[in-house]
Amino acid sequence: DAEITQSPRHKITETGRQVTLACHQTWNHNNMFWYRQDLGHGLRLIHYSYGVHDTNKGEVSDGYSVSRSNTEDLPLTLESAASSQTSVYFCASSSLVAGELFFGEGSRLTVL
Amino acid sequence: GQQLNQSPQSMFIQEGEDVSMNCTSSSIFNTWLWYKQDPGEGPVLLIALYKAGELTSNGRLTAQFGITRKDSFLNISASIPSDVGIYFCAGRRSGAGSYQLTFGKGTKLSVIP
Q: By C-alpha distance, which of A107, A43, A82 is closest to B41?
């Protein structure tokens, strides 16, 4: 079955370190998204991509970057982790046709 | 970014009761989606609605796409303990950026056995 997987599921890091969260989907979807989820804020869009080599900023993109070198993967990088980036991160993908979003299981990041 | 107004924020109900929740917006959406999130997991798609006035069921769940295209409703009949979780609505517009979703902040459902 097609799926979307995130790794690591849990990570603890220190302020200032670079962190990369991986996202891999086997749906062959063109569209991929990264969200963060925090109490009181719901799901907020960080970055998204509509295809290979395409990346776009979402509403909370500062301090984050993504790259799309193939259809299956959209890694999220925190260049210099900050405590404000402690959150649960969700990757999601959708096809061009239906637009229904399918989510990964999430990556819980703690920045100390 | 814009959020949908989802209500109620939380609800406690007795097992067997019916549940209703809704989402409203000042903007028009062309697609409404309802998700459920269990603790420690990602949101899972429950129902997708594509036409104004559409009423769609998935087991005990029924969702409606409002006629004005600015709202949507989710009903759960005869609730059971495994219905516990957070329910999110999401809307999708047409045109530029139409693959992005706007999310409500969720309704946390607790079911008392």
A: A107
